[in-house]
Structure formats: structure tokens, C-alpha cells
């Protein structure tokens, strides 16, 4: 049995000598981060510093409601409690096996001075890598039902810093290229919002444990102050609830380097521990499938001469998976509904009736004989009512056929043509799907999702999600696909929220079937993405014919999907990143390094390797004259013996990368 140690310590209160009604400062365990809470003329404010440097200046807190007076001022402090907590917990799968949850906590209980005397509690947790805080509206006589019109949370930045962001309230949800602008030039943006501060720090504003509440976006209110903007219901109300009501955590991660954001686990720590008694059925996996074939028009989702999800095609993919050490095969377009205008309001998918050329009993039997799992697929077209009416029977249907994983899709501008994916309506639905899937021993991978907020800690069957522009945009996007910088931005923005199903591994980079599109990387960069872009479900996305006989395929077959440790050695948002990860089940290390449209040369210090041991480094590097546009397939594969004392010189081509495995010799 694993032992956990908990430490709770009451800390002495100290009051500021300045003029606020009340002021209290609390430091993180090592003193690197400090948070100040104060009441100024009855208005609650907070501010944050990192080693004495201002990160968040005094920022307002509170609520406005549709049905009751606002809770945003005229407060006095009823009580204050402080404590500390230290725990190390183990992820069942993940990019880091052991995670330390170490913070100091400040609980502030406020009460109104007026006759209503309503109560509002604010909980702050201060970590060495940032801050999380949430509101609790306790059960009380003067508050019953709640209709939140506005959450007044602010993030007042210390300067006109630069932000990497995507706009909120757009038809393709999160699937846009990131912009880098000054805070003063921002529109309403999704989180995680990544900020490069003028003082040299890096900050990510996001949220944790998003449960039965609206997703938070942010907009510039005035000066350099960002204001919380909850995604509304169709009627304009932001959140419906009743007391007691607990909000998600508002998170501020702070790092001295971009890589420090990538290896911060503050968001995960602010979620509840695992809620499932048995998680033995939840397994990370490398998989293949017919998905890319449909994006390049080799196959179709609908029935017809090019139908992809047939018994014959599935057996071909199952054989290829078994021969090459993969875990699973994804099937899309197997069920009735694809022949209709399923994106229209009247379309209906049937999630328990396969097409005649898809013999699900035979396919699952054949897969089991080869020790290959089948990943199911449910496209909803964002018709949530239709899906929820069938969800229970659909999940039981998969369990009956021993299918233990399902990819969910929610293509569509709004759910049921009415509600935002990231409003409270969507949050409730995704949570319902996650919990029902867990009851049926189904792991899920959600495309067109609600953004991740660390819920995978509580429900480890929520394994991956999309939530950004993935590989498919390279096959058909009229803007030419994802530019080379895109993958150097994702680790410091989208993936701060959680694992992404980006679907790397395209070898046929020029895509002859799509003369106006190509994948804007070199072949070596496609390999490096398996290390750089974390997911416990990694797809070898290309069709099998493009892998057969290619020596570069060996890296995809070899690279793990479950890790003991992760480090970011170097990184500059939008330019480059170098990541190393240690395999969870061996002493092997894997490195991925990628660049934007610019070629780069630098040295990689191998000090992450165990001192005193020698390793065989198998290096998959950009070949001579490689270039993502003119010569993307040029690759060099070689081996050499190295140790922790060595330095490897690296040359990345424009749009290129390098992938390396390090395996102990002794």
C-alpha cells in the first residue's frame, strides 16, 4: 500500500499597517510566491507576487446576479483560517508519475455589513508555481436559487505584456491559430491564456475542476486588467445553481521559463482525487485507424464504394497493428447516420446499428484473437438531445462487444443549434458522458470538447481531447494548414490544460491527393511530435501503406505513451521546444525537439541521463538539405554511444525536428 503524508499547520495571522479594512499575506511553502488578500472599502481584492516581482496587481472579486443583489462589496471579514498541505500522489497514467501537491491555504469568510448579512467564502491555495482560488456561496437564509449574471474576477497584470491567445465565441470553438499580441490588443480569449511578462516571467491564466459551471473566458477590461467572462446560456444567464455553490478554481501558473509552465501540475492538483474504485481497465495506447484516409479522400464515413469502416478494411488494419506492436485500431463511420445531412438539425445518428458491411461481432472477435483493442467512435453532430437519448444503450452496446474506448465528436457551431459547447449546458453534458462512460468501463477521447481543466485526475477514463487545430487541418484547410510554428506553440498553451489528441505521424507529407495542401513539417519533426505533444492515446495517423518499408517508422513503434518523468530542456514559445521523457516501464529516455519555419543549430546537454551509465542513442534527424517545403522527407538515422557527460550537436531544418531514443547499454 502506498503511504501519503499530510501536514496541516495553523499559521499566525498578521495584519498590514496600511489603510485597507483588512489585509493578509500568505506565502507558498518555499516563499517563492506570495498572495495578498485585502478588503478596501468593503470590496474584496487579491494580488500575487513571485519572489517580490508583481504578477497580479490588486484585482476585484465577487458576483452579480439576475435574481438577487450583487455580492461584490460592503463586506467585513467574519473569520480567517490558514493551513498547509503536503502530499505526493501517483498518476495512473501521465507525463509525470509522481506529483507533489504542496501548498499553503487561506480561507476567508466574508459577511455583508447590511441587513441581508449574506456570506461569501473565498479559498486561496498558494503553490511555489502559482495560485488557485475559488468561491463558495454557502447555504444560508438569504440565498436560495442562484442565477449568475457576471463573475467579477479580475486579473490585473503588472504591465502591457504579450499574450498567446485564441478568440472565444467563434464557430469552430478552439480550432484557430494562436495570435501573439500585447494585452492591450486582445479580444475575448479562451484559456489557458499564456502571457510573456515584461518582467521576464511566464504566466498561464486558466481554471481547474470545471464542474456544473460555465467555462471562463477573459477579455481586457481597461489598461492591463483582464476580466472573467463566463460563457452564457442562450438566454444570457451565465450559471444556474443554488446554495451551497462552489465555483471552479481560477488558476495562475507562474514560471521563470516557458518549460516551467509545461511541467507545472497545479491544475491537476486542484482537482479531486480519483473517484473510481477500479481503474485497472484504463490503459494508455498507441493506435492506428482509417481516420487520415478519410481526410485525404481515400475513404468515406458514409456508405458507398469508398466506405472506410468495413469488415475487410478493419481486418487489414488489425493485422497491421498486430504485426507492428500497436495496441488498438480506431473505427469511424461504422454506424447509421453518416448518409444523412447529419450536421443539419433533423439528422439522427444510430449508435447501436452498424452498417451491413461492418460486422462488429466478427471484427471484435478477430481483434481479440490478435490481442488488439477496438476504439469505437460516436459523432454527435452536436445534437446532444439525440445522443443523450441513446448514450446509455450505446455504451452498453460497446461493453457487450468488449470495446473499451470511444472517441466522441461534437462537430457543430453550437450544441442542439442553441448552446455553446463551453457554457454550463456543455459542461454538464461532457461530465455526464464521462461519468456514464466510466460506469461502462469506457475510456474516452473527446473531439470538439470542452477545454480540459484537470478532470482526468478524478476520472482517469477521460484520457485525451482535441480542443485545438490538429493534424487534419493540413489535409484540407484553405489557409494552407498549420504553419510550422503551430506545434511549437501548443505545448505552452493548449497542452497546459491537458493531453491533446493531435494525431501525429504523417509520412506522406506532400499529400498527392490534395494538391493544394501539405503537412508543414519535415519527417523528423513528425517523429519528434510523439515526445513533444503529450497524450496517453497516440495515433500513428497515416495509412499503413505509407509506413511499410520506411525505417523512420521504427521510432513510432518504439516510443512509449506512458511516462515516469518529463523535462523541458529548452523552449521559446512559437520558436522551438526540446522535451525529454523517461519511460515508465524501463530506463529508456526519449527526446523530441522541434522548430518553427527557421532552421536552428544548438547543443543538447545529456545530463538528464543517469550518471555512470552508457546509452545507445538512436537519432532520427533532419537529413542534408531537409526543408518542410522543398525537401521534407530527407532524414538521417544513426546510432552512437553516449552518457550523461556528453553534449549532442543538433541541426534542425526549417520546419524540422529531431527524435532520439536513449537505451542503456549496461
Structure description:
The chain is of the alpha+beta class and 666 residues long. Among the domains are: 22-269, Beta-galactosidase, Chain A, domain 5, CATH 2.70.98; 285-467, Aldolase class I (TIM Barrel, Alpha-Beta Barrel), CATH 3.20.20. 14% of the residues lie in helices and 35% in strands. The protein has eleven helices and 36 strands. The strands form six sheets. Strands 6, 7, 8, 9, 12, 13, 15, 16, 20 and 21 form a ten-stranded antiparallel beta sheet that branches. It has an eight-stranded antiparallel beta sheet with strand order 1-2-3-4-11-18-17-14, with no helix packed on it. Strands 27-26-25-24-23-22-28 form a seven-stranded parallel beta sheet. Helix 4 runs parallel beside helix 5 (360-369) and helix 6 (384-400) runs parallel beside helix 7. The model is unreliable at 1-18 (pLDDT under 50).
Amino acid at each position: 500500500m502506498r503511504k501519503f503524508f499530510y501536514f496541516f499547520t495553523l499559521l499566525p495571522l498578521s495584519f498590514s499597517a496600511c489603510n485597507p479594512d483588512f489585509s493578509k499575506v500568505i506565502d507558498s511553502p518555499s516563499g517563492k510566491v506570495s498572495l495578498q488578500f485585502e478588503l478596501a472599502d468593503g470590496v474584496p481584492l487579491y494580488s500575487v507576487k513571485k519572489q517580490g516581482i508583481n504578477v497580479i496587481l490588486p484585482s476585484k472579486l465577487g458576483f452579480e446576479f439576475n435574481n438577487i443583489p450583487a455580492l461584490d462589496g460592503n463586506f467585513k471579514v467574519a473569520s480567517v483560517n490558514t493551513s498547509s498541505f503536503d502530499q505526493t500522489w501517483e498518476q495512473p497514467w501521465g507525463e509525470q508519475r509522481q506529483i507533489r501537491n504542496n501548498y499553503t491555504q487561506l480561507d476567508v469568510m466574508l459577511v455583508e455589513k447590511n441587513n441581508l448579512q449574506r456570506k461569501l467564502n473565498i479559498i486561496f491555495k498558494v503553490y511555489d508555481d502559482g495560485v488557485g482560488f475559488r468561491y463558495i456561496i454557502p447555504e444560508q437564509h438569504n440565498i436560495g436559487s442562484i442565477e449568475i449574471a457576471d463573475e467579477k474576477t479580475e486579473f490585473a497584470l503588472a504591465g502591457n505584456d504579450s499574450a498567446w491567445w485564441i478568440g472565444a465565441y467563434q464557430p469552430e470553438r478552439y480550432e484557430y491559430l494562436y495570435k501573439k499580441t500585447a494585452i492591450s490588443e486582445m479580444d475575448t480569449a479562451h484559456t489557458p491564456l499564456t502571457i510573456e511578462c515584461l518582467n521576464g516571467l511566464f504566466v498561464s491564466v486558466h481554471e481547474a475542476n470545471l464542474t456544473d459551471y460555465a467555462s471562463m473566458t477573459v477579455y481586457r477590461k481597461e489598461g492591463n486588467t483582464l476580466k472573467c467572462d463566463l460563457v452564457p446560456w442562450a438566454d444570457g444567464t451565465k450559471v444556474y445553481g443554488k446554495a451551497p455553490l462552489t465555483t471552479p478554481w481560477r488558476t495562475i501558473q507562474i514560471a521563470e521559463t516557458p518549460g516551467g509552465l509545461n511541467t507545472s501540475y497545479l491544475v491537476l492538483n486542484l482537482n479531486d482525487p480519483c473517484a473510481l474504485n477500479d481503474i485497472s481497465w484504463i490503459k494508455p495506447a498507441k493506435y492506428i485507424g482509417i481516420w487520415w484516409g478519410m481526410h485525404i479522400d481515400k475513404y468515406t464515413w458514409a456508405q458507398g464504394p469508398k466506405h472506410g469502416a468495413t469488415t475487410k478494411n478493419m481486418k487489414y488494419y488489425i493485422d497491421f497493428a498486430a504485426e507492428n506492436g500497436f495496441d488498438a485500431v480506431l473505427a469511424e463511420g461504422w454506424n447509421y447516420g453518416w448518409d444523412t445531412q447529419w450536421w443539419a438539425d433533423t439528422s439522427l445518428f444510430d449508435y447501436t446499428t452498424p452498417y451491413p458491411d461492418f460486422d462488429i461481432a466478427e471484427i471484435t472477435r478477430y481483434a481479440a484473437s490478435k490481442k488488439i483493442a477496438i476504439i469505437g467512435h460516436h459523432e454527435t453532430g452536436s445534437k446532444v438531445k439525440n445522443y443523450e437519448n441513446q448514450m446509455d444503450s450505446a455504451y452498453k452496446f460497446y461493453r457487450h462487444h468488449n470495446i473499451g474506448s470511444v472517441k466522441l465528436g461534437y462537430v457543430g457551431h453550437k450544441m442542439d443549434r442553441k448552446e455553446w459547447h463551453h457554457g454550463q449546458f456543455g459542461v454538464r453534458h461532457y461530465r455526464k458522458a464521462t461519468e456514464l462512460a466510466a460506469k461502462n468501463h469506457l475510456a474516452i477521447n473527446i473531439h470538439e470538447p470542452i477545454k480540459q481543466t484537470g478532470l482526468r485526475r478524478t476520472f482517469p477514463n477521460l484520457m485525451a481531447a482535441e480542443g485545438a487545430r490538429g493534424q487534419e487541418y493540413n489535409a484540407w484547410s484553405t489557409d494552407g494548414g498549420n504553419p510550422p510554428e503551430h506545434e511549437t506553440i501548443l505545448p505552452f498553451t493548449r497542452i497546459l490544460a491537458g493531453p491533446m489528441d493531435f494525431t501525429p505521424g504523417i509520412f506522406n507529407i506532400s499529400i498527392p491527393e490534395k494538391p493544394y495542401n501539405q503537412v508543414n513539417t519535415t519527417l523528423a519533426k513528425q517523429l519528434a511530435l510523439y515526445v513533444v505533444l503529450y497524450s496517453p492515446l497516440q495515433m500513428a495517423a497515416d495509412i499503413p501503406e505509407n509506413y511499410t518499408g520506411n525505417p523512420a517508422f521504427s521510432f513510432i513503434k518504439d516510443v512509449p505513451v506512458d511516462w515516469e518523468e518529463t523535462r523541458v530542456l529548452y523552449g521559446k514559445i512559437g520558436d522551438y521546444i526540446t522535451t525529454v521523457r523517461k519511460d515508465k516501464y524501463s530506463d529508456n529516455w526519449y527526446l523530441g525537439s522541434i522548430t518553427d519555419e527557421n532552421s536552428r543549430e544548438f547543443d543538447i546537454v545529456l545530463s538528464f541521463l543517469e550518471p555512470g551509465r552508457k546509452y545507445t542513442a538512436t537519432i532520427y534527424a533532419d537529413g542534408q538539405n531537409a526543408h518542410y517545403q522543398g525537401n521534407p522527407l530527407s532524414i538521417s538515422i544513426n546510432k552512437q554511444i553516449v552518457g550523461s557527460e556528453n553534449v549532442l550537436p543538433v541541426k534542425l531544418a526549417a520546419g524540422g525536428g529531431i527524435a532520439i531514443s536513449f537505451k542503456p547499454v549496461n
